[in-house]
Amino acid sequence: MKKILILLMFFYATNAFAFLRAKTSEVSISETDVFQLEIQTDANIQDMPDLTALQTDFEIVGQGTSQSYQFDGRNHISRNSLNLNLIPKRTGILTIPSITWGKEKTDPLQIEVKQTADTVQMQNENAVIIEAQLLSNEVYQGAGLIYRAKVFERIGLINGDFEPPYLQNAEILALGPYTLSQEQKDGSLYQVLTQDYAIFPQDAGKNLTIEPAKFQGYYRKMRSTEQLLPFGLSDSFIYQPRTSVRKEVSVCAKPVQITVLPQPANTKNHWWLPANNVSLTEDWNVSPEIKVGDSITRQIELSANGASNRMLPDLHFTNNDDFKVYPEEAKKNQIYDKDSGLIAYETQNFAFIPLHAGQVTLPALSVYWFDVNDGQIKMTTLPSKTFTVKPNPQYASTVQKKKDKTSAQQETPAPISQQEPFRKENNLLYFIGGLCFGLIFGIFGIILLHQKHAHKKKLPELYPHEK
């Protein structure tokens, strides 16, 4: 009985001192910050708590579990932790609700969520600033414009990245990684991170709002060494305390508006290629003496300033009586330079085979495009080029053999198709004749065997004297 009471008292004591605690990594954050909520318990609980109420004001972007052990001087304590990475869904003073895990509940917590600013101040100085600008506030539908985001910082960021702007129904391309430079601003020297984006709006309209780019980075915040040193230890090479903590900073640019002009009606019959400039270049690979059947290679490069490679048209030529053309697969690419902007390239090779001797003219090539600077349709052209082609007896004999072989193959089936019914009729007659001949031969054999049996002599009886 005494043992049972001791066990009950021990069970009551362990459950009476069981605890469930929740804490946050921050008490004040910006609306784009990610913070951590840690739920800790010393109970051995397998099932996860219900987090439905938490998702009203927060988005869970990551979670994990961990286990730790502590020694309180007498006992070893095992604790289980559930770590949640959260992003707030709105600004203001938000309440993290009470969470039930097993038979215990956590206390509600509060966190302040501030609206993201375009400037972070530290010690009355602008430590981090973000600015965004459009190199043009007006653009044609489908054409590209450059959006530039710049972060000015004086706190020595150790890491960070941009979040691109957003425009509904638009293609947005990050133009390479951000670049680093230094600039003077308001009498202070800043390190500048510049990220350019190309935006291609697909819908026309006035005062369309581009949701701004954001930047999230990290820096080291120094801490007092005296606060970190345990009793009896000094700051030496034997004990090196962490004198800094990794802190997060985020800034958000201001929204900008643009006007997107519709595609002009007179361009509907042509490939829509809005650009600042379009050019065509070519390179010929031709032998000094061209004969019939030789290959004339024409390499053509199309470039468009202010366009992406997906906007470039496909180039093509049509076969005729003078030549046949064999195109290779087109190669499309694009590059970006801050001075020249976004430039799209398309390179394609065409092999022309002349089919006869004499003067053979390879055709011109024209590309229509729309100049966004003056709002006019323009055409860029490569001229035609004429070559003198000499006869090629070897090519002619090869072609003639192919023609003779083709003619023979085409002429042979004609008499076969005429004789086919006659052959079928002869085969039937042969079958009937063979069948009759076989019947006659069989009847004749039966008669012959019967006559032979009738005229057979009778053998003398054996031992007649014994009768």
Structural class: alpha+beta
Radius of gyration: 46 Å
Beta-strand proportion: over 45%
Question: What is the total domain count?
Answer: 3
CATH fold annotation of the largest domain: Immunoglobulin-like
Please mark out the parts with pLDDT under 50 across 5 or more consecutive residues, or reply none.
1-17, 224-241, 414-425, 456-467
Q: What's the helical proportion of residues?
A: 10-25%
The biggest beta sheet is recorded as:
6 strands, antiparallel
- List how many beta strands DSSP finds: 32
Please give the CATH architecture of the largest domain: Sandwich
Summary keywords:
Immunoglobulin-like; alpha+beta; flat; disordered C terminus; 3 helices; 16% helix; 467 residues; 3 domains; disordered N terminus; six-stranded antiparallel beta sheet; five-stranded antiparallel beta sheet
Verbal overview:
The protein is α+β, with helices and mostly antiparallel strands and 467 residues long. The chain has three domains: 2-114, Immunoglobulin-like (Sandwich), CATH 2.60.40; 119-261, Sandwich (Immunoglobulin-like), CATH 2.60.40; 266-400. Helix content is 16%, strand content 47%. It has three helices and 32 strands. It has helices at 2-16, 393-411, 413-454; strands at 20-24, 28-30, 35-41, 58-71, 76-88, 92-96, 100-101, 104-105, 109-114, 119-122, 125-134, 138-140, 145-153, 159-163, 170-174, 179-185, 188-201, 205-210, 214-222, 244-252, 256-261, 274-275, 277-285, 290-291, 296-305, 323-327, 331-337, 341-354, 358-362, 365-371, 376-382, 385-390. The strands form nine sheets. Strands 10, 11, 13, 15, 16 and 17 form a six-stranded antiparallel β-sheet that branches. A hairpin with a 3-residue loop joins β27 and β28 (341-354). The longest helix has 42 residues, at 413-454. The protein starts with a helix and ends in a 13-residue tail after the last helix. The model is unreliable at 1-17, 224-241, 414-425 and 456-467 (pLDDT under 50).
